[in-house]
Design a protein that fits this description.
about 290 residues; alpha/beta
Length: about 290
């Protein structure tokens, strides 16, 4: 994590989401603020989506990856929308990066808590001011440096209500945490007043020699950028963890299946594709 600004993965995610708006038809996910927050034009994004020599361009021009970023965002916001319609009034975005949900929220009684590293949030505040995007009273930045501060302490100090239902959106983060740290966060989420939901994506361990080689190469690239990968889960393992924590429903999708659900087609991935899941606890279970 560069203390002078957002992480590279946060930028890649934001650029991919913005490129999706101009490069893909039909769109899976609509985000009219993505490009504005980054300060780039549609023409610049269209050009970036064709570049494969530039590191950022290579990541953004990877269409399956770009579609997965769009699909997981749509999946998370659809889940949040359903929970909000049922009366939930707290949404927590863990590792929010340059997410724009809080600035597209039309509900005056919905609190959105964006949790991220202080450096990312400082940079984001500057971009919001420069781009003229309003920071609504319903949105709260929760700066958390996980090396020195706990999630519980950060949210409590920001006015988050532990005794009220909530939706937690946790995308693009779990694989950069140790398994113990990931489990501790899931345990915290499971302790929220019901109904509670978490939407999370994760990486699977490779199953073949070819996939393992691809996975090692990607992990080495990320480690070289200062963001090493620490966690891989099988669908069975993560479902077992969630159910042991009291979640009563787990809906899990591979990246190709998630994309196909919105585009009625598929996308090819090198190696084991990422997955996204939605876990809910509606009825209290013994823990």
């Amino acid at each position: 994590m560069d203390n002078g600004g957002p992480s590279r993965t946060a930028l890649i995610t934001a650029y991919a989401r913005a490129c999706h708006q101009v490069a893909d038809r039909p769109r899976i996910f609509t985000d009219p603020l993505a490009a504005r927050l980054l300060g780039v034009t549609a023409a610049e994004l269209a050009e970036l989506a064709t570049l494969t020599t530039d590191r950022l361009g290579a990541a953004v021009s990877d269409r399956p990856r770009r579609l997965f970023f769009a699909a997981r965002a749509r999946f998370a916001e659809d889940a949040a929308t359903a929970a909000i319609a049922a009366g939930v009034r707290q949404v927590v975005i863990l590792g929010a990066g340059l997410d724009t949900f809080a600035y597209r929220n039309p509900l005056p009684d919905l609190r959105v808590f964006e949790v991220d590293h202080p450096a990312t949030q400082t940079w984001k505040r500057e971009r919001l001011a420069t781009s003229g995007i309003d920071f609504p009273e319903t949105s709260t930045f929760v700066p958390v440096d996980f090396e020195t501060q706990s999630l519980a302490a950060g949210l409590e100090s920001a006015g988050f209500k532990r005794t009220d239902p909530a939706v937690f959106v946790w995308l693009g983060v779990v694989f950069y945490l140790t398994p113990d740290a990931a489990h501790a966060t899931l345990d915290y989420i499971a302790g929220q007043a019901e109904p509670v939901e978490v939407i999370v994506d994760y990486l699977q361990p490779a199953a073949t020699d070819e996939d393992r080689a691809h996975q090692r190469a990607r992990a080495e690239r990320l480690a070289g950028a200062g963001e090493p990968v620490f966690s891989y889960f099988t669908p069975g393992d993560i479902a077992a963890q969630l159910r042991a924590l009291g979640f009563t429903s787990v809906e899990d999708h591979s990246a190709p299946d998630l994309i196909a659900g919105y585009l009625h087609g598929s996308a090819g991935f090198e190696g084991e594709p990422p997955r996204a899941l939605r876990a809910s606890r509606i009825l209290r279970a013994n823990r």
